């Protein structure tokens, strides 16, 4: 029995010998001319078993590690506000809007802009050079970079920066940008790498990202409940991210020693088997021809994933995090302290996690109905006005239409569910439409389209907030 069957894939989703379905009219991919594994010297009976689902859980963990850094930067908002506060007032009043400094005002926009630029640039370069730079080099270099800079960020937490706030601001923005660039390379490489395996392993990467978001949301709530200081909480966030990055590096290296992963990492080049490294990227096909052929097969899936994450980032967290309870009372335990962390961050991430998990047993619409999938992804644009007409503050142009807390709870949960389900579904479908030799590049291209959606959605969120 194949590993994807054990993990819960449906009969329609059963993988072939390597990751993806052969061309068949049943799945609407008759334009694929070659089997995915044309030269494999072994047959299905020779595939090693993924013992104890070890490789599956490594991909799950790598997916979590790829998104956890950004989630911790968002969760540590109070810490950055504290570090950049007006030092002439009591430290306990660092969140007073009347005493807000320019650095506090500018921090989030600079963080979002710099991180988006490096994220998009690095994942684009990963897509371009996927055949030139070996996977092992990309993965190890990006993880080492993230580990070093998170270590630096953890050290900065404990330093008194009151007398050099501008330097702290610049160093933090620069390190966050580089960290996000490193995680972008990591994300693109992970998705490309997972496409060499049965489809359930791409799903594992997507689920890992949702778990990372949920983990960060729970950590933030527990920090509030425990009454931890902003410094201690931030140190815990960044130290945790550093440790997880170190473990991710060790877990990735372990893949080169496990029989199941070694089997799927092995290519046949000119009749000689080789593990994915420099020689395995030597493909005689030109760049334009190579990428053009892939894009021709997966453009609909790429557009779908871009639309899904554009709409999600347009709403979350910019609009959804600004929604207040209609019964808001300043200082109240629920409406003032826990409403946003629970309803916005935790509820969305739980919905996202459930949506991604649901792709294990639901595969509708199928890949042959790709235009229906595209339509469904576009219909998610309705979440933007729905959330705008909730009790989001501050607002000066629109009236509140949905004046009960049940509305934002419903909308945010559905936003997470549909984001997780549709995003994962199209990420799984894309590599099925290309040959095995193109699968890694197809995965990286899909990761680029996902990142492009994040960038477009982040930019759109600024306009939406202004329209409230």
Task: Characterise the protein shown here.
It is a single chain. The chain has about 475 residues and is mainly α. The chain has one domain: MFS general substrate transporter like domains (Growth Hormone, Chain: A). The chain contains 15 helices and 2 strands. Strands 1-2 form a two-stranded antiparallel sheet. It starts with a helix and ends with a helix. The N terminus is likely disordered.
* The CATH top-level class label: Mainly Alpha
Q: What ranges have pLDDT less than 50 throughout 5 or more consecutive residues? A: 1-45, 268-283
N-to-C series of helices and strands: HHHHHHHHHEEHHHHHH
Given helix and strand content, the structural type is mainly alpha
Overall pLDDT level = 82
**Sheet bearing the most strands, described?**
2 strands, antiparallel
| Overall helicity | 55-70%
Question: What's the end-to-end separation, in Å?
Answer: 54 Å
Number of helices: 15
CATH superfamily: MFS general substrate transporter like domains
The amount of beta strand, in percent, is under 5%
- So what's the oligomer here? single chain
Shape call: globular
For this structure, the CATH topology is Growth Hormone, Chain: A
Q: What radius of gyration results from the CA coordinates?
A: 23 Å
* Integer tally of domains: 1
Per DSSP E runs of 2 or more residues, the count of β-strands stands at 2
Order of strands, main sheet, comes to 1-2
